[in-house]
Amino acid sequence: MKSVKAKELSGRMRDPLGDVNMRTFDVPDGLYSLAARLENAGFEAYAVGGCVRDMIMGRKPWDFDLTTNADIDSLQEIFPEARVLSEKYSVVRVKAADKPEIAADIASYRREGAYENGRPIEIFFVDEIEEDLPRRDFTINALALRPVYFAETVRKAAERRAGEPSSTDGGAQLIDMFGGLEDIRRKRIRTIGNADKRFAEDPLRMLRAVRLAAQLDFEIDEEVQRAMRSNSRLLAMASGEKSGSELAKMLNTEHAGKGLAMLLECGGAHLVLGGLDAKR
């Protein structure tokens, strides 16, 4: 199937969770084909995270994530060629057969309990995507797009323009539980839920907020900035390897200076820049 273009639609798309505005974006062929394999096996398949955010913004996504109500055994049955990244978290990585340059990490729906050392030590597999999305870090990364349903919506829209009869569009094409679309429009980084709690769970989220702000030329919400200043000391406990990766990504953006200024403002620059070598 060819790349599905949202510009084939005009106005608003309706889904069971409410009306949402959509911008022009493409669903890559390979992502569609992986989602279709899950849907054809009787499971749900949603694209989530940065790839949805980037598609909505008209940016080319590089990392692809799908989430599903299939468990690890079903994932391995549907994708026998998959590489298991984590049995505990039920995550596999699969290359698209029709577009091998596209690989997606596919994870089972889950919610998380207690954290330790930046990782959840309690996980609970769940049946609904609405139970999975609250565990994600920022509102702009908690948008979920169902590629197969979205493609059907585009097809029906094309039929209507051609004067052919078409039934009412159905199914949840896009789920936005936390105002992520509005935050994209306002170019704003917000955490899901209490920022202090989210940074205490995983201090690396503070670096990720700075990196995203530099990468996307967004601003960090004032409440999130306050929480970063209050919790910056926790960056000393973050993984040196992961901190270095986030820092490298930030420095490789067009707005790296903006990111460094934010890191200085929150008071965590010396912990990140000064502590990397010691942690390696």
Would you mind describing this structure in some detail?
- The protein is an alpha+beta fold.
- It is 40% helix and 19% strand.
- It has 13 helices and 17 strands.
- It has helices at residues 29-40, 50-56, 72-78, 129-132, 147-161, 180-185, 195-201, 204-216, 222-231, 240-251, 256-266, 269-273, 276-279, and strands at 4-5, 12-15, 18-21, 26-27, 46-48, 64-68, 83-86, 91-95, 103-108, 110-112, 115-116, 119-120, 123-125, 144-145, 174-175, 188-189, 219-220.
Task: Round the mean pLDDT to the nearest integer and report it.
Answer: 84
Q: Tell me the β content.
A: 15-25%
Gross morphology is: globular
Low-confidence stretches: 1-23, 164-170, 275-280
Structural class: alpha+beta
The end-to-end span amounts to: 45 Å
Q: State the helix count.
A: 13
User: Whole-number radius of gyration?
Assistant: 19 Å
Task: Tell how many strands the DSSP assignment holds.
Answer: 17
The string of secondary-structure elements, in order, is: EEEEHEHEHEEEEEEEHEHEHEHHEHHHHH
Portion of residues within helices: 40-55%
Helix/strand layout:
Layout: E1 4-5, E2 12-15, E3 18-21, E4 26-27, H1 29-40, E5 46-48, H2 50-56, E6 64-68, H3 72-78, E7 83-86, E8 91-95, E9 103-108, E10 110-112, E11 115-116, E12 119-120, E13 123-125, H4 129-132, E14 144-145, H5 147-161, E15 174-175, H6 180-185, E16 188-189, H7 195-201, H8 204-216, E17 219-220, H9 222-231, H10 240-251, H11 256-266, H12 269-273, H13 276-279
Parallel strand pairs: 6-9, 16-17
Antiparallel strand pairs: 1-4, 2-3, 5-6, 5-14, 7-8, 8-9, 10-13, 11-12, 14-15
Helix pairs in contact: 7-9, 8-10, 8-11
